[in-house]
Design brief:
This protein has 788 residues and is mainly alpha-helical.
């Protein structure tokens, strides 16, 4: 999505009354729903039950046990009275700081007098549920779930006893010291995000050093340097204005009919800058050995999203003003711009409607595990009476047939075919011009890229240029980053750990009593054929060696984009009908603090960005490695066998290999996981959704079982180092608002819930720390879960 389109979407959402904050939506609803859900439990607790739980707390909590003198142990209490008792018990709570401070509830300040009169201690600490001071709090009896939730939050708040909250205790120093600020977008802090920030700073320094250096013509450093300098030189870009794309705009304007328009674009464009159909070169979703061209409409998805909010006159007026500016910024006079804006709006709005139909699919749907249908070229071609798609692709160097060209956006792609009609020539010309401007906007002048009414600081502009360089020349930068920051010996070491994890999964699968021999065979085959890529992809397969002229020899920002689009198109055309290697790594920069299982290639990618201290170092003990990177690898590999992964074979093709009975058994196990995690408190009044986090929780439990099996083979293994490494790798916290967002959107259990719930399933953890019944970390053996 180009910069101006992103800015427009932000404006439209603001005019529509919708927040553009990535995590603000729904946070208040979440708190209300989560807290009110607790009142459905019918059991009641007595004062004696509260006394029993207090007696198991460490002396360091300094609970005021004298308050029980005013109560009979057999008394039952309303929620309001129970929390009055708990407030009086906790009269020496330490001041909230760090994670505890930023995660406090957003209290209703109209009730401040009530808070400070009866609940001051819990209110200041953020341990007072909102329901306590509601009308329900005075009539509903205190129940065991609310009481247990309170003590869970109390143990998290103190972080002083491993047996009660392992995560908060092991990570206390880190959690207490964090400083967050929603207004400054510092709404989350974790070991993972700290590592990512460090990685990005190192990555930026590589680019900064390249820009300042001196390099020979033709080197990758010189290519990056010239590209950066061409973009940062806004004076030179402004001097050229939109003149570089005038040849395209004039060629489009000269077309008197659809045939002339299609003929001109066929001769002038490639798959990267063709403005009337979207082309995506990628691996075939049903055969990972093949490459495929995916067809789609040529309206940016962000434009389609924008029209969802175009429900008022004000919003539609803003959209039209934006379109007029878009065309005038590219050099059109006002009358022509208004005409083109109107024509573009008509056709883009209609395509957007087709793109948002219920049965229209996307790559995101596929990656989310949805059943995505590929519609072959011959079926698509039926709806394109005026355009021969295969002939067009051939002109770009791609020989396409039903075997290597399709769409997964069928409804929108089909609708688009009907719009390629001579009666719409003015609309199509406007759309073609709009897309050409958008395609090249990053290379053009200030007005085209930002808009003449947008004021951008030099620092913002510098960041935008960095982003563009990293996007188009990221492979060069990734190579240099790995040379500097991939630890020596890490490839061999981490590959060995991954192979050990794979072998352990084989052992466990062979012992399963609910999986048939045939399915076990398929699972083992999948493990045997799994590709392990550590640090970086095989660049010899995907690397595109740009041949760009130097700035002194005719290079400039537009020339560079023209040549990059042309060379990328030619490179992909050359690979089109060759076997597609599953080693292809397409998911992101090596700088990411990430590891991932890719089901469509049956591969696990472990990025250089995650192979950094404090998550990994070659010098770590074996136990520490297993607790961090070993666990992470085991988690990712387990996705090969979850509800979605089991539908794909050893080559990443969509070929389900479970029978119905096995699926039912697996789902039963998953249901137990849902119940185990559901409604666990993350902090006061914010609760985990077991259903939302099901797949990731299954992966967490499976991974811990796997790496513990490896630990059990080590003589005199240091289990404390192992468990500490696991807990510290996932240390983190966030502001209240961001926590609410995570609960709503993140498919992982978060922070303490993730770590503590996983560990509570394994006897090795109990044995290491002497945890027994009565400790908050304890789960009865019959309630502990093993998946694989």
């Amino acid at each position: 999505m180009k910069r101006k389109i992103a800015l427009l979407l932000s404006v439209i959402m603001t005019v529509s009354g919708l927040s553009t904050n990535v995590f603000a939506a729904g946070s208040n609803t979440l708190q209300h729903a989560a807290s009110s859900a607790k009142v459905i439990i019918n059991d009641t607790v007595t004062v004696g039950d509260i006394r029993d739980l207090c007696s198991k707390c460490p002396e360091s909590y300094n609970l005021n046990m004298d308050v029980f003198k005013s109560y009979s142990d057999s008394n039952t209490l309303t929620v309001a009275n129970a929390f009055k008792l708990l407030n009086d018990l906790c009269n020496k709570l330490p001041e909230a700081k760090g994670y505890n401070l930023y995660s406090k509830p957003n209290y209703d300040m109209s009730k401040l007098d009530v808070y400070t009169k009866d609940y001051a201690n819990l209110y200041k600490a953020g341990l007072l549920p909102q329901m306590v001071t509601s009308s329900m709090g005075t009539v509903v009896s205190m129940n065991s779930q609310m009481l247990n939730d309170f003590f869970t939050n109390l143990h998290r708040y103190y972080g002083q006893e491993l047996k009660n909250d392992y995560y908060a205790t092991e990570n206390k120093s880190y959690l207490d010291s964090m400083v967050l600020d929603e207004d400054d977008e510092k709404y989350e802090k974790s070991i993972m995000s700290d590592t990512q920030t460090k990685n990005e700073n190192n990555y930026d320094k590589i680019l900064d050093d390249i820009v300042k250096g001196t390099y020979a013509e033709g080197t990758k450093e010189r290519q990056v340097q010239d590209f950066y300098k061409s973009l940062i030189d806004m004076d030179a870009r402004n001097a050229r204005g939109a003149e570089p794309i005038k040849k395209y705009l004039d060629g489009i304007d000269k077309a008197n009919n659809l045939n002339e328009l299609l003929s001109y674009l066929k001769e002038s464009c490639n798959i990267y800058n063709y403005p009337l159909i979207g082309f995506a070169y990628d691996v075939d979703l049903n055969d990972s050995t093949k490459s495929t061209i995916y067809l789609s409409p040529c309206v940016d998805e962000s434009i389609a999203d924008m029209y969802r909010y175009a429900t008022t006159t004000d919003v539609n007026q803003k959209i039209m003003e934006y379109y007029v500016d878009y065309f005038t910024d590219a050099g059109e006079d006002d009358a022509t711009a208004k005409k083109d804006a109107k024509n573009y709006d008509i056709i883009a709005r209609q395509v957007a409607q087709a793109m948002t139909r219920d049965n229209n699919n996307s790559f995101d749907d596929y990656m989310d595990g949805k059943d995505v249908k590929q519609v072959k070229l011959s079926e698509v071609q039926k709806y394109y009476k005026t355009l021969n798609i295969a002939d067009l692709c051939k002109s770009f160097g791609f020989n396409v047939t039903d075997s290597n060209c399709c769409t997964i956006n069928f409804e929108a792609t089909k609708a688009w075919g009907s719009y390629l009609d001579n009666s719409r020539i003015d609309q199509l010309k406007a759309l073609a011009k709009f897309n050409i401007i958008n395609i090249y906007s990053e290379a053009l002048d200030y007005n085209v890229y930002y808009g003449k009414n947008k004021i951008v600081s030099k620092d913002e502009m510098k960041e935008d240029v960095k982003d563009i360089v990293e996007h188009y020349m990221g492979t060069y930068l990734d190579q240099i980053y790995c040379e500097k920051y991939l630890p020596k010996g890490a490839k061999e070491d981490v590959t060995s750990i991954a192979k050990e994890v794979i072998n352990q999964y084989k052992n466990r699968i062979n012992k399963l009593d609910w999986l048939s021999d045939a399915s076990k065979k398929e699972a083992i085959k999948k493990l045997d054929n799994m590709i392990i890529t550590v640090g970086n992809p095989d660049w010899s397969d995907i690397f595109v060696d740009f041949k760009l002229p130097t700035l002194e020899n005719g290079g400039n920002s537009f020339v560079y984009f023209e040549k990059m689009y042309s060379q990328l198109s030619a490179s992909e055309a050359a690979k089109m009908n060759k076997p597609h290697t599953r080693i292809y790594w397409e998911t992101g920069s090596v700088v990411y603090c990430n590891a991932e299982y890719v089901r469509r290639t049956n591969s696990i990618n472990i990025y250089t960005g995650i192979l950094q201290d404090p998550i990994y170092s070659p010098s770590y003990s074996r136990e520490k490695k297993l607790g961090s990177i070993g666990y992470i690898i085991a988690h990712e590999i387990s996705h090969a066998f979850d509800a979605s992964g089991a539908d794909y074979d050893e080559n990443g093709n969509n070929k389900p290999w479970w029978n119905d009975k096995e699926k039912e058994k697996f789902e039963d196990k998953c249901d137990s996981v849902v119940k185990l995690y559901d409604s666990k408190p993350l902090v006061t009044d914010l609760y985990t959704s077991g259903a939302k986090t099901e797949d990731e929780n299954v992966a967490d439990i499976s991974a811990m079982r796997c790496v513990l099996d490896i630990m059990n083979t080590i003589e005199n293994a240091d289990y404390k180092s192992f468990f500490n490494s696991f807990a510290s790798s996932f240390a983190g916290g966030a502001t209240r608002k961001y926590l609410a967002y995570l609960i709503s959107e993140d498919e992982h259990a978060n922070y303490g819930v993730r770590v503590n719930t996983v560990l509570s399933n394994f006897q090795e953890f109990y044995d290491t720390y002497g945890i027994s019944e009565g400790d908050a970390m304890y789960v009865k053996p019959e309630n502990r879960i093993t998946i694989w």
